[in-house]
Amino acid sequence: MPENASADSWSHALDDLVALIDHPLPVPSPWIEDGSREEVDDARAVAVAWGWLMRTKRSAQAVLGLDRLGFGVEAAPLACSVMEHAVRLLWAARHERREAVGVLLSADGEEAPGGGGPAGAPWALSESELRKLGELQDDDAVAGRGERAGDLNRLRWVALGLPDGEAGLYGLWEKALRESHPTLESAAPYLEQSADRHGWLLRLLPQTRESVFDAQIAALLLAAFEAYVRLAGLEERFGPRIDALGARMMSLRA
């Protein structure tokens, strides 16, 4: 759909992004000729990044599909996965290809060696990356942050690096995380306090709520694709179309 189409929507933008990722057929990872460590690392980094991009894309499609079928509450674990894969890809793309292998496969702590804090942490993105994610999100649609994020508290470094008022990504991830595990938040959609406040009404279906997924998921998938393109050295081929989609999403948010 043209960028200036009046009937444009987040759904259309996401469909066009998926089409850009899927077609033409995937470019193979760098070819291994002499079997050197450098060649293997180069090829493996691009291959793993592609696999994570596909997981991000298909999980994003699953989240939105479930949300439209009335299962948005139950899609919370998939939403967490989309965010975590996208951020890990963004961080890996800031390294040389052979170094990116370690980044992609690392599941270690949240701080840099020596306690370097957010600037050296696995989830610390550059200022421009953080700003871009923040600009593509509708922060007003995200509920306020809670006091804890649980055992998978990695995205906190992203929140610490965001400008004031632009921590919507972290807020959405934290909310989805709490709804993914046995917490009061995971039970809340199926409960409703009685009018006399003497008990609870038990629901078969969750309470309806406004969806916050479309803008967030589209922005994250675009960021993940851009990270893959950088890792694979395909900026010349896909860069202009990524920029056009980014501008289009910005206009949708306006």
Distance between the termini: 18 Å
The helix/strand class is: mainly alpha
Give me the Rg, rounded. 19 Å
The H/E string reads HHHHHHHHEEHH
Specify the helix fraction band: 55-70%
What quaternary form is this? single chain
**Number of DSSP strands?**
2
Average pLDDT number: 73
Poorly predicted regions are: 1-6, 107-124, 137-167
How many helices? The count is 10
Largest sheet: 2 strands, antiparallel
Morphology: elongated
The number of domains is 1
Main-sheet strand order equals 1-2
Tell me the fraction of residues in β-strands, as a range: under 5%
Structure commentary:
Helix content is 56%, strand content 2%. The chain is built from 10 helices and 2 strands. The protein has helices at residues 10-22, 37-68, 76-92, 97-105, 127-135, 156-161, 168-180, 184-187, 213-232, 235-253, and strands spanning 191-193, 200-202. A two-stranded antiparallel sheet has the order 1-2. A hairpin with a 6-residue loop joins strand 1 and strand 2. Residues 1-6, 107-124 and 137-167 have low confidence and may be disordered.
